[in-house]
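Q: Got a minute? One more chain.
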Amino acid sequence: MHYRNLGKYGTKVSAISIGGWLTFGMNVDDSTSLKCLQVAEDEGINFIDVADVYNKGESERVVGEFLKGRDRSDFVISSKVYGKMSDNPNNRGLSHKHIRESIKKSLARLNTDYLDIYFCHRYDYSTPLEETIQVMNDLIEEGLINYWGTSTWFAAEIERATGLAKELGLRPPAVEQPRYNLLDRYIEKELWYTIDGHGIGITVWSPLAQGILTGKYLDGIPEDSRHARYNKLTEREMTEEVFEKLRKLRELAKENDMSLTQLSLAWALSKPQISSLITGASKPDQVRENAAAGEINLSRQLVEEIEQIMDNEPEYHPSYRVNYRNYLKGLL
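A: Always. Here it is, folded:
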């Protein structure tokens, strides 16, 4: 397994990491979840990412079970705050009250005294940014977290947070967690420049486009697949045009002694801005396959071949436009 710095910071994370969205404590039983985490540890994965909102804390609880009896310093653990945790109007968002109450609950569920990274899961337009930055800085000063980060924030929001933190003499965000994969390259539009300019790390979610880039949908939709259960994969990405490109990529991967999954992950890791790719897994074998990509270095020529086949210049994802409208409302 290769390890990369978290942006300009000294903490090193495995190039491939493991996350608990839709898996730990939800669609995967505890026993299998713990086996997946054990295999991840065996394969050299040191970064585990969860969130309080993932099945209302159950994902954190399972990781907490895994950490019992292990050396906490061997792992980089992150969680997130923002999502609605109950009908209580204060049990959501990025207010001082909610963050303070949430960190205590997350640490208890995770069976740890501190988090390596605490993400603001979305931007909170109802809370002054100064309030959020101040409480995150306080958590760092108190040793409850090592870094704070953002998830699915716009470049402008990260720029504002970074500038405001420096103006106030507080810690700026150290890492952003966006969606990024071969089918969704929109962060190359603007976020790249913000990341490079401030030395911020990127820990990517959905690097396999919710399973599309594994190739499992090329011959139909398996009954036990995520798409069959939730029907949440976008029509934009589940098209015959996309599938034809992926069939070509599958052949290219085979010629280079790897799976389509590994080729897709290795392509994302060819971007130096990326610190780690957060992968999901419902079976130990999937963890092994994903982890193997953490040791692959694609040649420049192979990267160019992949991008020629995909022929998709970075563009704004549909969800970006929805979020941008919300962003503009927040400025009014």
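A: Residues 327-332 have pLDDT under 50 and may be disordered.
Q: Perfect, thanks.
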